[in-house]
């Protein structure tokens, strides 16, 4: 049987980046300085330049980036924050940590992103303190339309860019549209560290300063705790040095991901499998997700052919036990529910060979 094709294979990524990563890690080991130093400062500068925003603050994870970024925008206990329920529950986890209430917005069937009609309706019904827009699967949402709606209501927008590093629309990068944005550098992300990491980017010096205090105990200066809600959530020097080595390669990896995704969409012909549209630079193909009514049969057929698949994500936020346990009403999110039962993720990562892509396509078409 042919070799197994995994949904992602970080060993291949490690081999392709080995020399650069090894040099970076050794530089940090030899420096004797491991937390919040020159590497983090340099990465923050390089990543904010890359995104085209004024400020970047490294933190310990993507979930922390959402939590601390929202706190810096004024979200806290009792705040109401609109978000989608199909994005892995990370934003909802951050909201629970803040004591804020998630207000779930349904998604649209094709892009699988926040439904603007539903958002508009929610904005008209009750006051919100923020909106989190997730560029899910690597597709940058239509930020102009969203900002048009939210600006009229005076509600700040936070972008969750954990799957969208480098996505662009009209020359502007993911993370440069909202009041602030969060990134994750978890190893499987389009820009991944060799451990956990995250960042908040923002055009506001005030928001950046607040996140800098919050990530380090709430210190306004050393050992002087000036703001509440502070934590220890720092990006370390090893991760920052690795990210600096990989950042110049990100656009090339994203092109390769997009080419693989475009081939899938053009060459998969089974009428029972609905593929995403072919996109331009606004899509960085973090995950390639198709929709089918008979998910288990497709997954079993592909597994038989040694093509691995996954589901991102099987449990929508509004149906997570942590939220339904209290027995309150469950939000009506028909499209989110429908998609959670019918989405399948196919292998899509830069190190996949053309021949493997051909095999995936052939096996889907042979279903
Ligand atoms: C990975 C991810 C996060 C969380 O990032 P961590 O670094 O794992 O905390 C948040 N949002 C989305 C959409 C993600 O994919």
UniProtKB/TrEMBL annotation:
Record InterPro entries: DegT/StrS_aminotransferase, PyrdxlP-dep_Trfase, PyrdxlP-dep_Trfase_major, PyrdxlP-dep_Trfase_small
Q: Does the keyword Transferase apply?
A: yes
Domain of life the protein comes from: Bacteria
Q: Does the keyword Ligase apply?
A: no
CDD domains found in the cross-reference section: AHBA_syn
| Keywords tagged on the record | Aminotransferase, Pyridoxal phosphate, Transferase
Database matches in Gene3D superfamilies: Aspartate Aminotransferase, domain 1, Type I PLP-dependent aspartate aminotransferase-like (Major domain)
Q: Name one GO molecular function term.
A: transaminase activity
Give the similarity note.
Belongs to the DegT/DnrJ/EryC1 family.
Q: What is this protein called?
A: DegT/DnrJ/EryC1/StrS family aminotransferase
């Amino acid at each position: 049987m042919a070799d197994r094709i995994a949904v992602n294979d970080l060993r291949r990524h490690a081999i392709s980046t080995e020399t650069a990563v090894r040099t970076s890690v050794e530089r940090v080991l030899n420096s004797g300085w491991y937390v919040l130093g020159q590497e983090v400062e340099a990465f923050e500068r390089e990543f904010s330049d890359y995104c085209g925003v004024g400020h970047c603050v490294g933190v310990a994870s993507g979930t922390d980036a959402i939590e601390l970024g929202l706190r810096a925008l004024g979200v806290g206990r009792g705040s109401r924050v609109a978000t989608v329920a199909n994005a892995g529950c990370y934003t909802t986890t951050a909201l629970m940590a803040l004591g804020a209430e998630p207000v779930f917005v349904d998604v649209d069937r094709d892009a699988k992103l926040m439904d603007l009609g539903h958002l508009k309706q929610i904005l008209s019904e009750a006051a919100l303190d923020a909106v989190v827009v997730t560029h899910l699967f690597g597709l940058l949402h239509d930020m102009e339309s969203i900002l048009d709606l939210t600006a009229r209501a005076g509600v700040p927008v936070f972008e969750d860019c954990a799957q969208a590093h480098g996505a662009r629309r009209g020359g502007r990068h993911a993370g440069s549209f909202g009041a602030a944005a969060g990134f994750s550098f978890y190893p499987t992300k389009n820009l991944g560290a060799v451990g956990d990491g995250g960042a908040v980017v923002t055009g506001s010096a005030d928001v950046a300063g607040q996140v800098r205090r919050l990530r380090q105990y709430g210190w306004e200066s050393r050992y002087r705790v000036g703001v509440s809600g502070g934590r220890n959530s720092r990006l370390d020097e090893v991760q920052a040095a690795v990210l600096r080595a990989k950042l110049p390669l990100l656009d090339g990896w994203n092109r390769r991901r997009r080419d693989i995704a475009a081939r899938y969409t053009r060459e998969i012909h089974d009428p029972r499998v609905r593929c995403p549209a072919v996109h331009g630079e606004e899509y960085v193909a973090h995950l390639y997700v198709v929709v089918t009514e008979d998910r288990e049969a497709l997954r079993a057929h592909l597994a038989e052919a040694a093509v691995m698949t996954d589901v991102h994500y099987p449990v929508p936020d509004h149906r997570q036990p942590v939220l339904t346990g209290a027995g309150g009403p469950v939000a009506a999110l028909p499209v989110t529910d429908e998609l959670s039962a019918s989405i399948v993720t196919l292998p899509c990562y830069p190190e996949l060979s053309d021949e493997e892509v051909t095999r995936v396509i052939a096996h889907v078409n042979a279903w």
